[in-house]
Each structure stands twice: as structure tokens, then as C-alpha cells.
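It is worth pausing here to work through a concrete case rather than discussing structure prediction in the abstract. The textbook approach is simple: state the sequence, then state the predicted structure, then interpret. We follow exactly that order.
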Amino acid sequence: MNEEALQSIRKRVFELTVSSATSSDLDVLLERLFVILRDYHDLPLEPRGAMVLLNPRGRYFQVAQFGMEPLWKSQLRWDFGVFASAVIAPGCLVETVSFHPGVGDEQALQQRLFLLPLCIDGQGIGYTTMFVPLDYQSSPSHLDFMNELAYVLSSLIHRALTNETLRIRELELEEARADAIRNLGVASEYRDNETGWHIMRMTNFAQAIAKAMGLPADQRELLYVAAPMHDVGKIGIADAVLLKPGKLTDDEFEIMKTHTNIGVSILMGNDALIAAARDIAGSHHERWDGTGYPQGLAGEQIPILARICSVADVFDALTSKRPYKKAWTVEDATAWIISESGKHFDPAIVDAFKLAMPEILRVRELYRDDIIDPKHVLMLPPVEPRENAWAPWNESLSVGIDVIDEHHRYLFDLINDLYEVVSNKLGAREVARLVKALDAYAKVHFRAEELMMTHYGYEGLNRQEHQHHAFEAKICEFYEELHANPLVAQFDVLTYLRDWLVKHILIEDAQLRSLVTA
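Step two, the predicted structure:
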């Protein structure tokens, strides 16, 4: 190739750095790059390649590809030849490597690769790999060009890492604020006779109802953060009234009703989150027919998030045991809520409540107040199998304890949600949000399991506790790694979660069956 043609290719590569300035989609970057390199006729590149980056433990992860299967579909593991070492070469290499394309394949395939080292601030972070024919022999001009290209790709990856890290920082600021609001809601519950699980159940009931109504995702997100604040005003109610075990007098009930106005006073501010929390705290005791309090609002005068929370809050209150009352059955509580459609509750929300009942019943089992009974048989509506699940649940994973199995199904759902975020390239911000949600529910699950084991004298408790704590520490480690290298960490955590959970269930939790036969 003459120098003029090569300069044209260099110019197009430079233009690629400009057009990719704000994108973190490395698959698109590779595709554009290979389109450009097709015109470099002297360099016989095959139309396939990948970006493989190191994790902190020296393992390579395929984070982008062109003409190849992505990590979650491929059996290929980058641990052969040069990839057996975490030391990144200072310049481009051409290597012939042997690897097994799938688990159990005995026939190793010979491949010749151009390896472009990727470096940030002098630190090697991985390679861009490009496949060439087995008989290819590099030339000085090819190596010079590829070293230039490696430098360009390194700068683009650095930019992508910076963009993704900034998005995670933005999420952290939002989450810190949301956590402060949630914690204030939890503080209000701890002054009451209700449990901390009431908040979790009520919030998730509300989410299920909102989803059944077709409420937009941004509104559901506001609801999820703001719903725990529904009774924040109880902080201002005297113990003599708030903690009274029996029925309140008329005067005491009037005092109790002021918690709605107290909540409004606490939640002053103009942004969307505070406004949603204020609407819920101030209006979740209003009634559709206008006979509620504190303002006697009727119909659609009542903010929609407050209307949703009203149904969710009442259902959980009715079906929960308290020192001053027995729990209603699900059937009785559901029938009463339906009977109050058009009176106490918005008819559209009652309809959504009925539609969401399978998910609501599942939430009740995921966030139980009582110790799990290994012999308790759940009578839940069947869960529709998830199409094309990356981590599919099947009956071979059942440990024979219905409630624990339901916990595990939910954890599999969260892992599959994470897979969809990664595979659809929704970004490290969404990955971080889901990792945090998964960590939070794993703690709920582990503590419930451990309480059950303690109560029934399970001999393997200490071993289980050790593994649970190690898992929690690992997820914390991954969350920190998302800040340092979000491009790698999201793939790393995805494979770890599926492999760990399946192994833990099949080896450790399977032994819990002994509690059923005891």
C-alpha cells in the first residue's frame, strides 16, 4: 500500500476518535474500526476481533467483540498463551495460540492473533485482539501502524472508562440521598409496633401495583424511594399514643392523624423525589370518596402515588400480626380491599392490585416477619418461566424448602435482570444499581436462612455463615471495582454471581433438606 493510502486510513482512524468521544459502546467502536481496516489491503485481517481487559486478579475478560460471540454466549476463556500472564507487552505482538473453543472439546484450535496492548497512564490494562491467517508474517510497517492504533484505542478506552465512572458517581450521589430518605422512614417505623419488614413489603407491594397499572419507569422509581416515607410523621407522635397497645380513644386518634401533617412539614423541598415523598406522607390516608384525612381530598385530587401506597399499606397492615390484633388471611384482606373499591380506594388501583396479586403474594414470602418453617408449603400462583433466561431456574435447584426456593428464584431473577442490563449495554450505572439491589436482597435472604438454621439447630450453620459473609464481601469488592474499571467489573460480577449461586445451592443449601425430614 502506498503512503498516500495509508495516510488516508490514519486520518479515518483519527476521525473515529472524534466520533466516539461520548460513546462507551466498545462493540460499535470495534465495528467502525474493522470497516476502516478493510481498506488496508496489505494487512490481511480476518473480520473478527475482541477487546479483553484485566480484572484486579489478573484474569482477562472479553468486554467487546466484532464477528465473535459475546462473553455470555461464548465458551471461550481468555487464559491461553499470552493471556496466561497479567503482564501486558510494551508493544504489538503477533502470536500463534491454541485454545479449546468449548467445554469438553478435545481438539485445540490454532489461531494467529495480532495483539494490540492497551495502556492507561503507563499501566497495561489488556489487549485488542485481531485475527490473522495462520501463515501471516508481520512486517515493520504493519507493527508501526498497529502500535499507533493501540495508542488510539487506549485513549478511547480511557475516555469510555472515565464516562462510565462519572455515571456511577452520579448514581452514588442519588443513592446516598435516597438512602438518607429511606433511613428516615425506617426510623419512624422503629418507633411504632410495626417491623422494619413492613416497609419492605409495603414498598414492593406498591411497586407491583404500579407495574400492573403500567406506570412509567421513572414514576415507579420515585415510588420505590419515596414509599418508605409514608409514615415518617409518626416521629412526632408521643409514645403514649403511638405505642398504646389497645384501641385509641377519639382524642388519641385525632392526635395520631396529625402524623400526616407532620410528615408534610418534615418533607419540605421542590425536587421530584421530595415532592413524591411529601405527597405520599400527606395523602396516603385520604379516601377515594373524600372521607379520609387530613384534607378530605377525593378521587384524582389525591396524588396517584399516595393512592397506590394506600392500598399497599392497608393490605400489609391487615395481613400482619400485631400485639393488638391477629393477622387477617390473605383471602379476607383481599376481599375487603375489593369491597372498598370506589369508597376507600381508587377502583383502577384495586383492579391493578388484583392483577398484581401473584407478585404481591411472592413479596410476602420474600420479606417474612417470622422464622421460616422448613415444612411450610407455599400455595403461590405459578411463576411464568422467563424466556431465554441466562441463569435459568429449574427444579433440580430446589432444596425442598418452599420459602427458601422462592428466595432463590428471586435471586435468579435479579441475576437475569443484571444480564439483560449488561447484554443490552445499558451502562455501568445500571449495573451498579442492580448489584446494590442484589446485595441488599442477598442479606435479607442470608439472615432469614441463618435464623431458620439457628432455630432448628442446623449443624452446618457456621459454615453457611462463613460462606454468606464471604459472598457479601465479594459483592462489596465488585461494587468498588465498578469505580476503577466498570468495563471489566460488570462482566466479572455477572459470571461470578451465576456460578457462585448455582454451586452454593447444589452443594450447601441442598443439605438443608435434612430440616424437612427432622
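Step three, interpretation. The first helix runs from residue 3 to 19. The two ends are 79 Å apart (CA to CA).
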